[in-house]
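User: For documentation purposes, I need each entry recorded in a consistent format: the amino acid sequence on its own, followed directly by the corresponding structure tokens. There are two entries in this batch. Please keep commentary to a minimum and don't merge the entries.

Assistant: Recorded as requested. Entry 1:
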Amino acid sequence: MSNNRKFSLQALAAAVCIAAVVGGLAGAAITRGCVQEAEVSESGAAAAQDGQEMSAAGSATGGQDAPNNQEAPVSPVTQEELQMLNRAGIENMDIWDSPVYVIGHRSPDSDTVCSAIAYARLLTELGYPAEARITAEVNRETAYILQDAGVEAPPVLEDAAGTSVFLVDHSEYAQAAEGMQDAHIVGILDHHGVGTVATGHQVVYEARPIGSTATIIWLDYMNYGVDIDPTTARLMLGAVLSDTDNLTGSTTTEADRRAVTVLADLAGVRDVGAYYYGLHAEKLSYEGMTGEEILFSDYKEYEASGVKFGIGLVNAIDEETAARLAGQMKEALAANIGAGGTDLLYASVGIRENGQKIDYIVPADERSRQMIEDAFPHYDEYDGTSFIFRTGLGRKTKFVPGLTDYLAAHPHE
């Protein structure tokens, strides 16, 4: 075939191919005809087909090499590596001055005090100089736990301004030590709602919907690969039992239950029930205390929608005792409404009977009383002193969230 005729056939074949593609007629028969008329060799066609198959294979595998050239799969993270990674997660903790003071909320309870001690020890083991502090003298129950463990109460931090601080068991300025707004906060560990504390720098922040801050710290000891000594385990055990009402509280989780089992074993406590009875008996005892001392023995302040409110928790053994304590609290509340800028003030006197939580909510004044009627109209009884909730109105789970939501929906004028 002459070169001119061959060139003409090739041109014609190319034109047909172009027309087929443009017209959507790129069928197998036309394609074969185009290839034949273009006199593509069988070896060339085979090579082209091989190239297409390799390209398709490459696309299917994301452009990787053939299976025999693939990299080995990444191995799972080991427990040791996980602990190392958890430690790396706090290595950028922004500490200005040493030591870091680990401190809980005002009117310190057992969870806040024992958690401060346990977490300060954990930070120290991890190489961060830390010391536990408290905001005020400890209550009777906490004193019992500390004495049982052979541990002195931490010193009181009078003013947090200018210090490096790690907060445990709270994130509210209203509940924090004096001067906290001028402190350098490096971390927060809590099991409540997100509070008003804010920083302009990175912080270690860990919050879980769990029964006790001490349970979170127990998890952190394991996550960081640090052993818990028997004394610290005893403190943490008391904290968990106290804050979960011996694992009967509504916020109790499986983590809290497991923590009690493990911590009791580490602490050498063989009879957890007897241990709880001892600390609970101290918690119920207000012998020699004034009404004001009882009110503020477990007291917290909150702020929502421009309204500042305070709630003191009081424990009773039966309804007769609850009614008597409620009357005592009424006087203490009336004398302290407005102190510290509080707009609303309450005492919550709680008892447990047959596994049922009953709360007597005592308002300080008429405004506080009206707020309970408006925000919690489902109360069972009002006896002139207390609103009685026979299914409970837990401060952490119902009282504070419910009042916060109501205030948000009905802005303060």
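Entry 2:
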Amino acid sequence: MSAQKNTSKNKVLVVASAGGHLTQAMCATSCCDNLVLVSNKVNISHPKLSKIYQIKDTQHNALIHFFNIFFALYVLLKERPKAVFSTGGPIVLPFALLCKLLPIKFVYLDTLSRVVELSNTGKLIKKYKLYDQFFSQWENIAQQNNVQFIGKCFDILGENPVNNTKQQAPADKPVILVTVGTNQYGFERLFELLYQNPLYADDSVYWVLQVGHNKLIQLPPNAKVVEMMSRSEMEDWVKQASLVISHCGIGSINLMLSYQKKVIFVPRVAKYNEFSDDHQLQIANEIKSHLFDVIMPEQAFPALDVSDLKRQPILAEPVDTINYSMAKQMNQFLSA
């Protein structure tokens, strides 16, 4: 009974937008035992999540923030968490404001995708002092903004040694997975690049296309096309893929690292109305490696060869990319 009571006292309410923000939040709180999640999409299952609330997305309608204030108040009063933790996305702003008023401890970790400056959400939270503790995952940004730095939530640069060598047999036809992520912006430019590639019309390859709100003009001979996937479905296809072609989102980067995938990243850019800013370009400059190729705007798509795809290793189990040293420190901040 006492152990259960103590766990309840240490309940952490995690508020994070779906995608990279949520991936980072789960990594950073991996040493916490009692988590409740608020996100704009409910596409996750996790053994430490006791409950998930779905909040309205504010990406295209700022007025929804006013509705979300009442929703946030309902969740906070119902769950009565020890602390609220967020890695960002505009859905967190009502929670940050209410935590200041109630008061409830609010801990904010700015997203890894912001390499040269704080995110827009981070800037607002910092400007109006809507936090008890504020962290950046890039040391130079932390110094420039007088906030704390305790490391990155996962091994984004692929620096950790990989000891997992257990592999499984590839499929009869190499699988190429294409993913545009979970946001609402179009990404037709990525598919235009694919249409021009000879392998897109080759029946010796099986394409899995997660297209979001984009409408395909051409289909490969062998293909599975879906608008969205659950996190578990996406992981299953990443595991099977010989190559992944992806937008440059933080959640995608972490998942590809966990299966040591060969990836071609195509960052979204603001001038093509593919995102509201150029943070994917900023993060793209940090991640080039033996596994990750990055196609910058106006660059040609690389040639793809079926024989190369067949030689790519397929790991049977994921590699753990979580930074547990950082996660242990975060648990101490949240439970203090």
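Summary note for entry 2:
The mean pLDDT is 92.
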